Amino acid sequence: MISNQTWILRKRPSGALASGDLELVTSELPELADGMVRVRTVYLSLDPTNRIWMSDAKGYMPPVAIGAGMRGGGVGVVEESRFIGIAPGAVVNTGLATWALYNDLPGEKLAVLPKLPGVPLTAFMGPLGVTGMTAYFGLLDIGQPKAGETVVVSAAAGAVGSMVGQIAKIHGCRVVGIAGSTDKCRWLTDVAGFDAAIDYKSEDVGAALDRHCPAGIDINFENVGGPVMDSVIARLNDFSRMPLCGLISVYNATKPVPGPFNFGNLLMRRTLLKGFIVLDYLDRFPAGMRAMADWLAAGKIKFETDIVHGLEIAPAALDRLFSGKNLGKLLVKVSDPP
Amino acid sequence: MISNQTWILRKRPSGALASGDLELVTSELPELADGMVRVRTVYLSLDPTNRIWMSDAKGYMPPVAIGAGMRGGGVGVVEESRFIGIAPGAVVNTGLATWALYNDLPGEKLAVLPKLPGVPLTAFMGPLGVTGMTAYFGLLDIGQPKAGETVVVSAAAGAVGSMVGQIAKIHGCRVVGIAGSTDKCRWLTDVAGFDAAIDYKSEDVGAALDRHCPAGIDINFENVGGPVMDSVIARLNDFSRMPLCGLISVYNATKPVPGPFNFGNLLMRRTLLKGFIVLDYLDRFPAGMRAMADWLAAGKIKFETDIVHGLEIAPAALDRLFSGKNLGKLLVKVSDPP
User: Predicted ipTM?
Assistant: First the structure.
């Protein structure tokens, strides 16, 4: 028998995730069922949405049930297969699996990852993964960027934000990122090619936006919410667009959080705001991945990973997203790649 | 010489409009300039946007200058013309003029109103006017109603809301209006053909929405803002739409007003929210007016007017919009129709 490890949701967190909300449970794997594929997790992706799934507030999917394995995905290697067409040794995207060393998954739902020259495996959880697709479709489909426009993105050094800014640059926009440290801001301007970056922890965001967005803001790609969002909304141009991708500043909230105090400016500026979930674009992923792969190959997209080691660290590592510690895609390396 | 009367903005109101904010000034009309048309106001339209124009908060147009005539429009009769193509006696839509007995207006900007059988002059400030076009384009262009969907509209017995609901009914939707009295609610269901109406002053809005919108809410046509908007946002369906037309509950605010406390539901439900101003649709007014005129002729659109008498009452009458006293289009009858 093979021993598995799975993080089980024991209770719904109140505020930040606390010790005891999740429990790491060891179990013996059953015999693999017909049509299923046994995947050993190599990298587990940690994302703000994990926190949403722990809550029973009405989200975009049902919450993880108490007592169930914590929902999550990543890439892994096939250890055993009872599905024709996927062989042991294949590297796959697990889709929506659990925070576990092994997941037995229906073969027809798995995507075998291609080997692309010069593209590391981690890219399939970054630019070529869900976060890359989030940036790609949110910016292009909702934001509709035009050359010369000004794009502001919050959580700009994160997995999504860093892609949004670079895709906007490729489309000829002026790009201003908002992030939470001088190191991140330096990475944004010096590596990722943003026109400017604002450290919201040490700068007056409104004054910095005035300085860096002299022609106002045409697109606000919103990942965070809260007072920083208010500062951006106040500077939107007429007919601006606001892809609403995330509100990480409120996911840990334990009491009602007011919406933007200048909500009325969305009316006055005739802003289009659109909430979206990347899964809404699932049928268009192939086109998005092809575009991102081309830009990666051309050196037009830089990406960073923030890798922590060991499945046992996953719950604690999730907090890096909420405390602003990560630069780039946060991953847990669970086992060795093939 | 002809004597004119004009409401002059003397100071910016703080909160509700107060005595002394506007002053009614008598003046002698100068000789009519070349290319201009002298229009005697018959009906002056009072609209929530008048209050926006008095404020120097950044709106969608520059505010009325202190010392200038209060901006407003309506319909009037041409008393004198120095513009070829518009003759005395013609009935015109004044466009953006002032709260005055007479306005001298550039002839090329005036629209002469057609005589339509069975259509009273007041309809040109209701279903066939700016408020009708606001309802038409906001609902159809942004809301994209489909037969069988549920539409909620706030300020439902107002000039815009009452049209929104009826246009939605014509498109096969279930329509629930929110208004501020039992009389208004009765008018909505018994005359305007709404499926249900909620009196927000005497009912628990959330419970009533649950009762009247068993399949959730697909379109929220927002005119009001505040806690009622929160109750509606909480019940939006996936891929819902929210034309953001007005936020009358905050126009008189003297301190910052929080946005919706469930702003995050716009993300989770992937709602499309779009602020709009009817002037953005000016080039499509002819098509909108044709459609509305057809529906009016077919008896599919009912409309009410709330007419007060005398230019001197205009500032006081504006408060009827904010205190919820009006049912239908609020007009000041300034002088007799031809």
Answer: 0.92
Helix axis angle, B130-137 to B159-170, nearest 10°? 40
**Which chain A residues contact residue B256 at CB under 8 A?**
261-262
Residues from A in contact with B at Cβ < 8 Å: 58-60, 225, 238, 244-247, 250, 256-277, 280
Residue B223: the pLDDT is: 97
Enumerate residues 6+ apart whose C-beta is below 8 A from B207: none
At B245, is the secondary structure helix, strand, or coil? coil
Instruction: Name B179's bridge partners.
Output: B199
Give the pLDDT score at B30. Answer: 95
Task: Give the CA dihedral A228, A139, B241, B238, nearest 10 degrees.
Answer: -100
Q: What tokens appear for A195 in the block?
A: 């026109």
Q: How distant is the Cα of B277 from the closest Cα of chain A, in angstroms?
A: 7
Give me the domains of chain B, ranges plus CATH numbers: 3-126+304-333 (3.90.180.10), 130-279 (3.40.50.720)
B247/A263 CB distance under 8 A: yes
Please check whether residue A155 is in contact with residue A224, taking contact to mean a CB–CB distance below 8 angstroms.
yes
Strand ranges in B96-210 using DSSP code E only, listed in sequence order: 97-98, 102-106, 111-112, 150-154, 174-179, 196-199
* Cα torsion through B242, B243, B245, B250, rounded to 10: 20
Q: Spell out the residues 6+ positions from residue B185 whose beta carbon is closer than 8 angstroms to its own.
A: B157, B177, B179, B197, B198, B199
Contact B93, B110 (CB under 8 A): yes
10-residue averages of pLDDT along chain B (338 residues): 95 93 97 97 96 92 96 96 96 95 96 89 95 98 98 97 98 98 97 98 98 98 97 98 95 90 96 96 95 94 96 96 91 95
In this structure, chain B runs to a length of: 338
Angle at B43 between CA B37 and CA B44, to 5 degrees: 85
Interface test with B, best of A49, A53, A56, A267 (most B CBs within 10 A): A267
Please state, in angstroms and as integers, the Cα–Cα distance from residue B10 to each residue in A20, B21, B52, B103, B313, following that order.
64, 5, 15, 19, 17
- Quick one: how far is CA A2 from the chain centroid? 32
Backbone region of residue B119 per phi and psi (left: phi > 0; alpha: psi in -120 to 50; beta: other values): beta
Mutate which: A250, A268, A278, A281, vs B, most B CBs within 10 A? A268
In angstroms, the CA A87 to CA B68 distance is 79
Low-confidence ranges of chain A (pLDDT < 70): none
Q: Do A220 and A240 form a contact (C-beta atoms < 8 A)?
A: yes
| CA A164 vs CA A143, A157, A210, B93: distances in Å | 10, 10, 21, 47
DSSP state of B299: T
